[in-house]
Amino acid sequence: MVVLFYLVATLFAVIELEAATPSPDPCDSQQHTVLSEPLRSVGHVYQANKAPICDRNLVYGWYRFDSPAGNEIPLTCPPANRCGTHTTVWLNLTSNPSANDGVVLTNGCAHFVSPGVTDDCCAWRTNVAVKNCSDYLVYALGHTRHQCAYAFCAGTEVPCPEGYGSPNSDFTPGCEDIDECATGTSGCSQLCENTDGSYYCRCNDGYYLGLDNHTCTEPTPTPPSPDPCDSQQHTVLSEPLRSVGHVYQANQAPICDRNLVYGWYRFDSPAGNEIPLTCPPANRCGTHTTVWLNLTSNPSANDGVVLTNGCAHFVSPGVTDDCCAWRTNVAVKNCSDYLVYALGHTRHQCAYAFCAGTEIPCPSGYSSSNYNFTPGCEDIDECSTGTSGCGQLCSNTDGSYFCSCQHGYELDLDKHKCTDKDECSAGSSGCSQLCINTEGSYYCTCDSGYVLSSDKHTCRVVHTLPSWTIALLAVAGVGAAIAAIIGVVCCMKRERKSWRQVSETELRKF
Ligand SMILES: *[C@@H]1O[C@H](CO)[C@@H](O)[C@H](O)[C@H]1NC(C)=O
Ligand SMILES: *[C@@H]1O[C@H](CO)[C@@H](O)[C@H](O)[C@H]1NC(C)=O
Ligand SMILES: *[C@@H]1O[C@H](CO)[C@@H](O)[C@H](O)[C@H]1NC(C)=O
Ligand SMILES: *[C@@H]1O[C@H](CO)[C@@H](O)[C@H](O)[C@H]1NC(C)=O
Ligand SMILES: *[C@@H]1O[C@H](CO)[C@@H](O)[C@H](O)[C@H]1NC(C)=O
Predict the structure, then answer these.
(1) Ligand 1 atom 2: the closest Cα is on which residue?
(2) Where are the membrane-spanning stretches (predicted)?
């Protein structure tokens, strides 16, 4: 009995002792830890590139939030990826306790989202106690999971946007533009201009802003970037055969741009200097597959470098006829007086080539001062240029010429050289007996006993006498002639007068 009393008395003594020394009140600032991260705010969207808040190591105890973003754990499910973390912890309470509710036990709910798998506002629970300390609340919180990232949320204010700040630790309310120039946080090495939400740096005259947009550096002479219009920067292509007007001849090697090194080119051709802007026929431009530019017009002088497509017109008879069977990247720049093109090979097959110009080759037998392309094609006078190859006579005609030969010669089968005409064997001589051919002519002769007549063609018989008869006749003839002359001369001298008288008398008789 005594023992029992003693026990009861002791028990009362213990109870009395507890009442005398009041149990510690978590509202007492000594009894709780203050958490002040504003990043726990529901208004703070977690940035994936920053370390998330993780309450894995939060020691179970009493905590009070004292944050510029707000001091209460939310009572509704916050979105995931808020509160500076991924998994947001809230309290499933309809309202916070009032001042005389004492310590209220409740559940902290973790809102866990795994996209496409789960979105659970209370994926797991943690035991939480809350007490209303009149001016503030205190919470008994502790870690429950070893995984991260999850954290208790507190407050609802939103961080000020970049370039804005507020007296509320740069959270709403009261966000205002930060004047980085005035606060000296700009980092501008020379001049600073504030803007709403930002700023920019400027430089004094004679300096320029570096790539970091902050530091100004003294100008260093930078070489101007090479201009493809500069004659050192492009290659000149001058084949007039690239002309759209030039029909590719199957017996010629086609132009092939298979080995054209990618670079800037300028056409300087008598046939024209521009790549056509409409689809040329196949088998032109000295090739089979003609490459043109699918542009409505060439660039103007201030368009700079214009990028476009080269289109290859490929024809396979009966199979395909495609004006843009394949493309190649082409750049064009208007250099005022001429265009330059950035061209390069795209295919390993041949024959394809870039076209340039539209002039037409002069027809055979015509030439022009324009490298024998139109305009100005005129007949070539092969006779006077000495290119005819005629052996003797040459006659020019429109677009051609022909050779002929002098009398006594005839034109060879090559229509150029002349060879002696053998009138004797051709039977055209007209000689009645013998015919002797000579270079360029012939003559007739006669058999023995005949002589050539004065027509030089016919022969006639000779009448032969003994030679002494001829001599005798000759002597007699000569003697008679001499005698006659002497007689006449002397008689005329002697009878000159009388002869006249006689003659006059004689005449009178009649
Ligand atoms: C505590 O409860 C009282 C009502 O009893 C209320 O007016 C007060 O706002 C509460 N304090 C907090 C921090 O919720
Ligand atoms: C919050 O608590 C209530 C009452 O216990 C319960 O019905 C409800 O499902 C809870 N909410 C969540 C999201 O778990
Ligand atoms: C500098 O400013 C330009 C234009 O505003 C911007 O594109 C660039 O990213 C900036 N460079 C740096 C290093 O911030
Ligand atoms: C370059 O452009 C100008 C107009 O800016 C134009 O008059 C000129 O003909 C063009 N040059 C060539 C080669 O197309
Ligand atoms: C040329 O370009 C235009 C516009 O891009 C396109 O509609 C047209 O089909 C092209 N022409 C050819 C022949 O590919």
Answers:
(1) 98
(2) 468-491
Among 44, 28, 46, 40, smallest CA distance to 72 is for 40
**CA–CA distance, 357 with 241 (Å, rounded to integer):** 9
Q: What is the pLDDT of residue 509?
A: 46
User: Ligand 4 centroid to 309 CA: how many Å?
Assistant: 20
Same fold, 178-221 and 423-465: yes
Q: Does the pLDDT of residue 315 top 60, yes or no? A: yes
pLDDT in tens, 344-379: 887 777 889 999 999 999 998 999 988 888 988 999
- For ligand 1, what atom is nearest to the CA of residue 137? 13
Of residues 323, 304, 307, the one with CA closest to residue 315:
323
325 CB near ligand 5 (under 6 Å): no
* CATH class assigned to 382-420: mainly beta
In the CATH scheme, what is the homologous superfamily, with its name and number, of domain 423-465? Laminin (2.10.25.10)
**Centre of ligand 4 from the C-alpha of residue 229, in Å:** 13
What band does 469 get if pLDDT is binned at 50, 70 and 90?
low
Rounded average pLDDT over 464-476: 65
Residues 24-45 have pLDDT tens digits of 899 999 999 999 889 999 999 9
Amino acid identity of 106? Answer: T
Cα 10 from Cα 300, distance rounded (Å): 109
Owner of token pair 């800037």: 264
Residues 6+ apart with CB under 8 A from 144: 124, 125, 126, 127
Q: 323 CB under 6 A from ligand 5?
A: yes
Give me the mean pLDDT over the 303-310 stretch: 91
Pocket of ligand 4 (CB under 6 A): 298, 300-301, 334, 336, 338-339
Question: Are β-strands 289-293 and 352-354 bridged in parallel, bridged antiparallel, or unpaired?
Answer: parallel
pTM confidence score: 0.43
Residue 109 alpha carbon, nearest atom of ligand 2: 14
State the CATH class of domain 178-221.
mainly beta
